[in-house]
Design goal:
Elements (H helix, E strand, L loop, with lengths): L3 E5 L1 H12 L5 E3 L1 H10 L9 E5 L14 E5 L6 H10 L1 H13 L10 E5 L1
Parallel strand pairs: 2-4
Antiparallel strand pairs: 1-3, 4-5
Helix pairs in contact: 3-4
Length: 119
Amino acid sequence: MHPEWGSVGAETASALNAVRRAGGRIVAVGSTSLRLLESAAAGDGALRPFSGETALFITPGYRFRAVDAMLTNFHLPRSTLFMLVCAFCGLDVMRRAYSHAIKSNYRFYSYGDACLLFR
């Protein structure tokens, strides 16, 4: 998986930590946001400021620390991003979702149809 650059500012990290402390959920919009938030997360899930490249390669077995849900498009099957979403909510769940998407003629890849995924 290629590295991507991004940042999580101190104010954003603080606001997201407050949401989590209040019992709220953190929702990443897109796989890049998910990778950046996970890169900014400490072992206990608390977010800290982060700026730079994330080379985080998320595959099944990864222990998510920060993100509770994600909004993302339907990635191409057999891609690294498909592995990421399988790690997030399980291979069986994603197989069922992709089977439905194919039968329903959803659009895949960039600018395709989106899905809201929960861990």
